[in-house]
Amino acid sequence: MILKPVTSEKAVKMIDIDNTLLFEVERKTRKNEIKSEVEKIFSVRVDRVRTLIKTNKKYAYVKLKKENPAIDIATKLGMI
C-alpha cells in the first residue's frame, strides 16, 4: 500500500511545522487502510490522513498525534 516516503522541501517543512509525513501510496488505497498501516509499521498514533491525487499518483498526508514526533520517523526513514 505505502510505496515510498516523499522527501521534497515541502515534505520536510511539514514534518517540522505540522508533525505530518508525506507518502506516495497505491491509488486504490483508502484512508483508513493508510492509517492502520502507518500505525502498525511505525508504532505511532495517527491523528488524521488527507489524500491527494496528482498526475496519476496518490499522495497521503499523515498527521501524527502530538505525543509522536514526525521527526523521529523521518530520521528512521533517512528523510532527514
Secondary-structure map:
Layout: E1 2-5, H1 9-18, E2 20-25, H2 31-42, E3 46-54, E4 57-64, H3 70-77
Antiparallel strand pairs: 1-2, 2-4, 3-4
Task: Give a quick summary of the entry.
Helix content is 38%, strand content 34%. With 80 residues, the protein is an alpha+beta fold. The longest helix is centred in the middle third of the chain and has 12 residues, at 31-42.
List keywords for this structure.
alpha+beta; Alpha-Beta Plaits; 38% helix; globular
Describe this protein's structure.
The protein has three helices and four strands; from the N terminus they run βαβαββα. Strand 3 (46-54) and strand 4 form a beta hairpin. 18% of the residues are buried. The protein has helices at residues 9-18, 31-42, 70-77, and strands spanning 2-5, 20-25, 46-54, 57-64. It is globular. Helix content is 38%, strand content 34%. The protein has a single domain, classed as RRM (RNA recognition motif) domain (Alpha-Beta Plaits).
